[in-house]
Amino acid sequence: MTDILGDMRRTHHCNALSAGDIGKEVILMGWIQRRRDHGGVIFVDLRDREGITQVVFNPVYNATVHEKAHDIRSEYVIGVRGKVEKRPDGMSNPNLNTGEIEVLVTELKILNTAVTPPFQIEDDVEVTENLRLKYRHLDLRRPALQKNLIARHKASVAVRNYLNGLGFLDIETPMLTRSTPEGARDYLVPSRVNPGQFYALPQSPQLFKQLFMVSGFDRYYQIVRCFRDEDLRADRQPEFTQIDIEMSFVGEDDVMNMAEGMIQTLFKEVINSALNLPFPRLTYNDAIARYGLDKPDTRFGLELKEISDIVKDSGFKVFADVVKKGGIVKALNAKNCINLSRKDIDDLTAFVAIYKAKGLAWIKVKDNEWQSPIAKFFTDAEKNALIERIEMKPGDLVFFVADQPKITNEALGHLRNHLGKKLGLIDENDLAFTWVTRFPMFEYNEDEKRYEALHHPFTAPLEEDYDKLLTDPTAVRSRAYDLVLNGFEIGGGSIRIHQRALQEKIFEALGMERTSYEEKFGFLISALDSGAPPHGGLAFGFDRLVMLLCKETSIRDVIAFPKTQKAACLLTNAPSLAVKSQLDELHLRVRLTT
After folding, report:
1. What strands lie across the sheet with 433-437, from one edge to the other?
2. Buried b vs exposed e over 172-189: b needs ≥16 C-beta within 10 Å?
3. How far apart are CA 227 and CA 217, in angstroms?
4. CA–CA gap between residue 552 and residue 537 (Å, rounded)
5. CA–CA dist 78, 492 (Å, integer)
């Protein structure tokens, strides 16, 4: 069988040659980035995943090869043999690692032709994301995306090497499991051999990794695929990857210290960034009080201040009434922003409405007065208290939201992040890591009139809060911890419940009947009753972590074949309809509802 390559085998990648290689005969292979015909001499930028080398077809050097080069076009796949030469004086390209040299071609093999691509294979080309995803095999040729996926590979290697060095075992968990409550919607898989029954694709290996601890494996990890059927956005995908870790005989500090070392190693090896340890820590209550959100961006100030106690009896009834009804009033001081226009303020009012805030009050602080529709409602004593609490100075613009605590905090927290970007307060090169700890154990679902686990129902509560589990669930704090980077939650975990009695008490606090939790979690309860060690762990969102490493704004740019925001693959046209014979085998009938 004839080999199209013949005796031609690549000697170097397209980013490998330099002045030290001048005079060598080399063989390069790759794609034609661009072709230029300059008065009979044809120049080609030859590209592979490592970079670009300029190759030259000169009729004086080899007329036959030069004639053949007239047939080649962009994105053709070619192999060339030639001699490395120094570029003529004044023709070096400092933007390329190979910019000092070129290869004078003596042999050309056209390995494959290519139709004209729907967009240029360049980083700065203007093209819609849908078109990029439809032709993802071409999009992935762009240097930026190749750089991202190479960084992803390096990150995976760094994680594995670090955890292997600490005695962790990489053990797989099932992809076909059972559906469990307390999370996003599952992706269901019908069982052919068990008609009418379904597997669920795992949202995480949570229960299995706890079982590993019960089984005595002590330290487990996995870089694992997970699936959640939830509303999508720039940092979410229906299928995603996480670094999943679990450890026995540990407390919070043990897990967090291990995780810090992993992140430090990862950032050093992938982007050569040295991180200082330990990372700062905030309790959940402190994070909400100061930043409004449980994933605070700590790269800039503009911290929130609660003023409920100052305005509870004020003449401004909006504030006073909210406090009387159990709500809170908080302020955000946008320092030196007095020049924002009324339209700017109206736009910010519309912005906080996204987070259900009913309004955005404001005060512009001038040298001798406050400019604001609400200024007249405060007494001098209240004004002085506000000045001191909010640190108001001439030139400041202060924003206020009054509502129930969740709405007030979320609205001002997101407004703070929005202003941080709008006002240029954020150093994009800064890496601000923060641990958030001691989350509430439960939150109340108003729609379903029941308590839900804020993280998951296998998280251990603080021992000093055990007595509140059934009497005051929302006051119970958990042994959970999240790691936040620049306002993104990149990982989180907890110390787990390892005793049957406590786990059953948590199920009871969640309003679950014994028959219900025995059916869904009987295997776990049985395991806890079999001598489960104290254990804990965490999981990092690998896609989101790589996104931040690569300074991208969407995880779709660090995933090889991502889905759209409608969970569709434009390359393969998935999802698609199943044929009738497949449905018959599964004993399924499709009925579309409006």
Report:
1. 169-170, 219-227, 239-248, 535-541, 488-495, 480-485, 433-437, 281-283
2. ebeeebbebeeeeebbee
3. 25
4. 28
5. 48
Whole-prediction pTM? 0.91
Q: What is the DSSP string of 484-525?
A: EETTEEEEEEEEBP-SHHHHHHHHHHTT--HHHHHHHHHHHH
Which tokens in the block code for residue 592? 């579309």
Angle at 190 between CA 188 and CA 192, to 5 degrees: 165
Whole-angstrom distance, CA of residue 513 vs CA of residue 492: 28
For residue 326, the 8-state DSSP code is T
Task: Decide: helix, strand or coil at residue 103.
Answer: strand
- Helices (DSSP H) in 95-195: which residue ranges? 129-134, 136-139, 143-165
CA nearest 361: which of 347, 377, 345, 376? 345
Residue found by looking up tokens 């603080």 in the block: 462
Residues 6 or more apart whose CB falls under 8 angstroms from that of 340 comprise: 334, 397
Cis bond upstream, residue 238 (ω within 30): no
Amino acid at the residue 71: D
360 within 8 A of 400, measured Cβ to Cβ:
yes
Q: How many angstroms from the chain centroid is the CA of residue 8?
A: 43
Which residue type sits at 466? Y
> pLDDT value at position 232?
75
Q: At 225, which amino acid appears?
A: R
Structure confidence at residue 182 (pLDDT): 56
The residue ranges of the chain whose pLDDT is under 50 are none
Reported as type and span, the H/E element at residue 77 is strand 77-86
86 CB-side CA count, 13 A: 5
